[in-house]
Amino acid sequence: MLRTGQLESIAFFEHSLQKAKACSKRFICKVEKIMNIHPLSVYHFYHELGFTERFYWSNQENSLILTGIGTLVPFHHSTEEQYSAIEKEWKRFGEQVYIEQENCFGTGPIALGGFSFFDNYKNDQDWKNFGTSHFYVPKLMVTVTNEGTFITSNYEINEQTTVEDLLLQYKEYDDFLEKFGMKQPSFSQSECINKDEFEPNEWIQSVKEAIHQMKNEELEKVVLNRTLNATFSAEVNSTNVIYELEATRNVNYVISYQLKDTVFISATPERLISKKNNTVSSMCLAGSAAKGITKEENTEAANWLLNSKKNNGEHAFVVNYIRETLQQYCNELSIPSTPRIMATKSLLHLFTPVEGKVYNHVSLFELIQALHPTPALGGFPKEEACKLIRELEPVDRGWYGAPIGWIDLNGNGDFAVGIRSALIKENKAKLYAGCGVVQDSKPEEEFFETGVKFLPMLNALGGLRNER
Ligand SMILES: C=C(O[C@H]1C=CC=C(C(=O)O)[C@@H]1O)C(=O)O
After folding, report:
1. From ligand 1's centre to the CA of 377, what distance in Å?
2. What is the mean pLDDT of residues 435-444?
3. Gap from CA of 80 to ligand 1 centroid (Å)
């Protein structure tokens, strides 16, 4: 399956092991271009290699699909300095890995992972595998780009490691790809047997309370989240959920991150920040309207949204915040003065793209830390809004609404905001949806909006099957 012949592989491992040992490296990375395989097959059959972690990432144009399985090195920190701690460890890893040649974008050693919404979140059972930050370098990763399909395999070595040890490991990956790389996963959706919106009346009361506080205090916007618990007749198959999300996608990202028995999955329209050399991209996404059925209804909804004072106000907090934050890191920044419409499956949003050029010393982790949470997920002012969220929300956000993505050793990468998401464990899923609350919000309308935000994920999970 792998393109490299046996002799070439022997030569590669002999050469790189010798080089790596000579400069005291602890890891070796091998990248190969291969014939097409479907990354979802690798994602689906990961346990055949005895792995318990897997990651799936695809962006809007499918210009980058990543599937990582197994952990070579984990990085996780529960301190409040998790961004700088992860960055430090990532740099250290970079110094310890032997790479034969400069790799194409999206291949080679990549760390996949994310952060929790709050630095010091409550010890929530649902999120116990995830913590405040979790990243890992996968043992095996498939990358699909416009340039083809690539396999990255990463190996840990020590003084005793022999070429035969590495070849044995390599053969295991090769056999796995030979056997499963083309095999169609069995897509079976489990039936939803119960759907329960968590404390709907209490949530509406919380929105009223937030609006009330805005009258007296300096708080101007807060984003409140609510949850829906769904139970299924059998274990939820996350391959199937990804497949459904991909088949009906019109969001920027489909992401899945599994640690042990828990999977966080998000079909999110929202990018927090991406970086390629000095170019960064972000976006302002806030202000929503439900889509209509006909084209005329959608045009009407889009016009309404573009002219809605309340939604434009909600959106402006995000634009101002992202502008003020990125200005500190960029020598060029381009943000259009008026928002446009972004359409997802069930909603229209106000959307303003952001492009910039950062100073040479600026890192992706620095930008993530500075931006998160934007007023699209926290509120404005940030501290007041976050304080109120913690007071009013009974369910921990975990990784909902937080940065999730990947980074390479050149410091390039892409981080999305984990909204329109669910946490899946066995036959249960908890879905998350939030909305911006401002002084002229109507609690029932916000309730409706969050209800619409649940739908694409609920649908992909199979929760709307009997209602279509
Ligand atoms: C907080 C969420 O959406 C954000 C992104 C787009 C529009 C939003 C809004 O109109 O309230 C939210 O700011 C969510 O989907 O959970």
Report:
1. 7
2. 96
3. 26
Position 468 pLDDT exceeds 60:
no
Of 55-64, 105-114, 313-322, 445-454, the range with the lowest mean pLDDT is 55-64
Active-site residue (options: 221, 345, 430, 453): 221
Q: Where in the chain is the domain with CATH 3.60.120.10?
A: 193-467
- Of 203, 222, 288, 308, the one to substitute when testing ligand 1's pocket (max ligand atoms within 8 A of C-beta) is 288
What's 369's DSSP letter?
A: H
Q: Which atom of ligand 1 sits closest to the CA of residue 225?
A: 16
Q: Is 288 in the pocket of ligand 1 (CB under 6 A)?
A: yes
CA distances from residue 142 to 35, 56, 68, 446 in whole angstroms, order as listed: 11, 10, 7, 40
Residue 270 annotated in active site: yes
Supply the pLDDT for residue 100. 87
Q: How far is the CA of 25 from the centre of ligand 1 (A)?
A: 45
The percentage of residues in the chain with a pLDDT greater than 70, rounded to a whole number, is: 97
Nearest-angstrom CA–CA distance, 79 and 74: 16
Residue 433 Cβ < 6 Å to ligand 1: yes
Please give the distance, rounded to the nearest whole angstrom, from the Cα atom of residue 449 to the centre of ligand 1.
9
DSSP code, position 50: T
Which residues fall within 8 angstroms of residue 11, CB to CB, at 6 or more apart?
none
- What token pair was written down for 457? 């994920």
At residue 249, does pLDDT exceed 80? no
**Binding site membership of 259 for ligand 1 (Cβ less than 6 Å):** no
β 279-290/271-276 pair status: antiparallel
147 secondary structure, DSSP code:
T
Could you read off the pLDDT of 177-220 as tens digits, one per residue? 999 988 888 777 788 999 999 999 999 999 999 999 998 779 99
Q: Report ipTM (2 d.p.).
A: 0.99
Q: CA 241 to CA 423: how far, in whole Å?
A: 12
For 424, counting Cβ atoms within 10 Å of its Cβ (0-12 exposed, 13-18 middle, 19+ buried), the class is buried
Question: To which residue do tokens 């991406």 refer?
Answer: 274
Nearest to 435 by CA among 461, 454, 416: 454
- Active-site option among 87, 244, 270, 384: 270
CA 455 to mean position of chain CA atoms:
19
State both tokens at 225.
Answer: 């989240």
Please state the rounded mean pLDDT for residues 287-310: 95
CATH class of 193-467: alpha beta
